[in-house]
Amino acid sequence: MNLFRSVIAAIGRKHKPHRSQAGGKPNSHNPKNKWRCSVGRFFNMGNEESSPIDESVPPQTLPARTLEALSDHIKNGKVSRIVVMTGAGISTSAGIPDFRSPDTGLYANLARLNLPYAEAVFDISYFRKNPMPFYTLAHELYPGKYRPTITHSFIRLLHDKGLLLKLFTQNIDCLEREAGVPDDKIVEAHGSFARQSCIECSEPYPEADIKRHIADKEIPRCHQCKGLVKPEIVFFGEQLPAEFFRHRSLPAEADLCIVMGTSLTVQPFASLPDVTPDSTPRVLINKERVGSLGSGTDDVLILGDCDDGVRKLANACGWLDELEGLWAKTAPKDTGELGKPAAEVAKRDKDEQLEDEIDKLTKDVDETLRLSKWHEEKVRDEKLPGSATKSDQPKSSDTTSSGDRPHEDSDGNLGHVFVQGQKPDRRVMKGEET
Ligand code: CNA
């Protein structure tokens, strides 16, 4: 509970109603010192509903809530402390799925790992019992396989121009580092693959060893106590890194906030954009409107693909050639991850994906056949005079063995029909102390 107390102490001092709660009217007195968030707001779970600002409300800082007005503001030297906040959406064009996009999202594709529920792959208590699904996923996601996107290079460009105050990322893929954003500018709010340690004794584990284990899809064990080793990615049920809490009030010092590729559904990260002062311009570059973005007086929305959005912004600022040049430098050389040529890695990944798809289809067909066979037999039995009624459970003496019946999990759901979000949604609890 210490964390809660310290957050209340920190946020409580700066409490004020959010602009939208104040009827959409700008503050009349010294708005520069005001934070958008309230205590309640900081603790609210999930993606808070907010209505778009009334067009009749004038901006406080920008001449208009447009890309052009924003780029003029930047070109006029009014911006020198940019805070960037990112999520999985900035890495999807690199080939790393986000979690929640339907069909393509990671959670939609985890059925093959036979998890009791999708989020279990990042659940520390599940990991203790069964670390293999995580390591299967880690094999696919491990840094080195993917090229940073132009959006990652855009963040690097902001740093090169001396404009980046801090990058807060929820991503664990280390692509910001690979794009050249220095370590001291990055807060990896949900940890990353950059470090690994024993979950029992916290002993750091050598990078070369974990790379080897992940490449071989083996489970690494601590050299000291033989406990399970895990990359320092924050799992559900684990605390966020101290670094996040050390820097979480930094957005209050920003003169521009850029939010990209996140659904802003995981707290406490989701509240970071609200720590910026009311008058600080905020830009959202995302497929859809999220969080409170769009409700502030100086919010600019660039909706659509992130890479397109940063190109538009860079172009408007006169930086596009520089940005493309910087991104070109991230093109893969001869080697891909784990010592394999990049082309080979990409081909192997495609082959593996295809194999997985075929496996999944085969399993689904198999299950459907079993289901219809079981159903056919059950209907036939029910039709026979004196046979079991509908409410009767199949008995162990039934000719249909239990293996022929569709698998049911402990919730009574058909195991092969993998439905997202059947369990209580714990993503909002990430890193919160209980
Ligand atoms: P999310 O909840 O999956 O949301 C992603 C957001 O990005 C959604 O609003 C999408 O519409 C949007 N989006 C997806 N692709 C694009 C695109 N090309 N251009 C513009 N917008 C796009 O992911 P969040 O990051 O918000 O959720 C936080 C989770 C995700 C953290 O715990 C991460 O650890 C986790 N995650 C990280 C990675 C990674 O490291 N690359 C991958 C998957 C999940």
Sequence-ordered SSE layout with sheet pairings:
Elements: H1 2-12, H2 39-43, H3 67-75, E1 82-86, H4 124-129, H5 132-141, H6 150-160, E2 164-169, H7 175-178, E3 186-188, E4 191-198, H8 207-215, E5 229-233, H9 242-247, E6 256-260, E7 282-286, E8 299-303, H10 306-317, H11 320-328, H12 342-383
Helix pairs in contact: 3-10, 6-11
The chain binds carba-nicotinamide-adenine-dinucleotide.
Structure notes:
The protein has 434 residues and is α/β, with parallel strands linked by helices. Among the domains are: 52-96 and 146-190 and 234-333, TPP-binding domain (Rossmann fold, 3-Layer(aba) Sandwich), CATH 3.40.50.1220; 343-395 and 404-429, no CATH class. The protein is built from 12 helices and 8 strands. It has helices at residues 2-12, 39-43, 67-75, 124-129, 132-141, 150-160, 175-178, 207-215, 242-247, 306-317, 320-328, 342-383, and strands at 82-86, 164-169, 186-188, 191-198, 229-233, 256-260, 282-286, 299-303. Strands 3-2-1-6-7-8 form a 6-stranded parallel β-sheet. The protein has a two-stranded antiparallel ribbon with strand order 4-5. Strand 2, helix 7 (175-178) and strand 3 (186-188) form a beta-alpha-beta unit. The relative contact order is 0.15. The chain binds carba-nicotinamide-adenine-dinucleotide. Carba-nicotinamide-adenine-dinucleotide (CNA) is lined by residues 87-89, 91-93, 96, 98-101, 106, 170-173, 190, 261-263, 265-266, 286-288, 290, 305-306.
